[in-house]
Write a structure and sequence with these properties.
Blueprint (H helix, E strand, L loop, with lengths): L2 E6 L17 E2 L2 E2 H9 L9 E4 L4 H12 L5 E4 L4 H10 L7 E4 L9 H14 L1 E7 L6 E2 L5 E3 L7 E10 H14 L7 H6 L5 E4 L10 H12 L7
Parallel strand pairs: 1-4, 1-6, 4-5, 7-11
Antiparallel strand pairs: 2-3, 6-10, 7-10, 8-9
Bound molecules: cytidine-5'-triphosphate and magnesium ion.
């Protein structure tokens, strides 16, 4: 089955406070997006990947990718104001004969290629899959004034990661229904679940964390400098 990578990278990193596209922030000597694509290189899907860049930054992204990947540089297109819109735009740009789409955040540079392959295999079998990890923390539900109202059973709670992988028809239907109902989510597996599709959870690793805050970026630099990325 033909598989394409779709990389949402159109965020501006408000919580990181980088003052520009988060995906181009320096991560121990190379842009975060370049590190993420290098980590995915063993899958052999880079040249056909579709990267979503912030409006006004497509040319910057193309230049960065051309200098690191030359002829294997992936396609860059303009993303949307929300992650869901970025993914929808990427979905419109997949090759017509693509069967499986693997969506992986640019902000998770330490995903293990074996994890991606396991998610691709699960999506081929079940239609939809997301990488996630069983929650180590007890999760609290609060009311609007930050008072505890509920503590769900931790044994059934997973923290969502990427990649999220889908048979293309499943993801198209999920996005069409979300658009029709005006639903805006922060991930795509939830959209598929809302349309009634089963979504298989594939175990990820702690190193597949998302770089969101300055502390995450500092931790990510340590991971690179200590050579831990291959342990992901
Ligand atoms: N993303 C995207 N399009 C958007 C918003 C986010 O493609 N309109 C991507 C980001 O580039 C990132 C992933 O979705 O790779 C997860 O988003 P997040 O970590 O929230 O990144 P930012 O939106 O950049 O950060 P913040 O919310 O702090 O501004
Ligand atoms: Mg965001």
């Amino acid at each position: 089955m033909k598989t394409q990578l779709l990389i949402p990278a159109a965020g501006m990193g408000t919580r990181l406070g980088a003052g520009g596209p988060k995906a181009l922030v320096d991560l121990a000597g190379r842009p975060m997006l370049v590190r993420t694509l290098e980590q995915l290189a063993p899958l052999g899907l880079t040249a056909q990947a579709v990267i979503l860049a912030p409006a006004g930054h497509v040319a910057d992204f193309e230049a960065v990718l051309a200098s690191h990947f030359a002829a294997d540089a992936p396609t860059v297109i303009e993303g949307g104001a929300e992650r869901q819109e970025s993914v929808a735009r990427g979905l419109d740009r997949l090759d017509p004969d693509t069967d499986i789409v693997a969506i992986h955040d640019a902000a998770r540079p330490f995903v293990h290629p074996d994890t991606v392959q396991a998610a691709i295999d699960a999506a081929a079998r079940y239609g939809a899959a997301t990488v996630a990890i069983p929650s180590a923390d007890t999760i609290l539900v609060a009311d609007p004034e930050d008072f505890l109202i509920e503590t769900p059973d931790r044994s059934r709670l997973w923290a969502c990661q990427t990649p999220q992988v889908f048979q293309v028809a499943v993801l198209r239907e999920a996005h069409a229904q979300a658009r029709e109902s005006g639903y805006l989510g922060t991930d795509d597996a939830t959209l598929a679940c809302r349309t009634g599709h089963r979504v298989k959870l594939v175990p990820g690793t702690a190193l597949n964390f998302k770089i969101t805050t300055p502390a995450d970026l500092a931790l990510a630099c340590c991971v690179v400098e200590k050579g831990l990325a291959s342990c992901a």
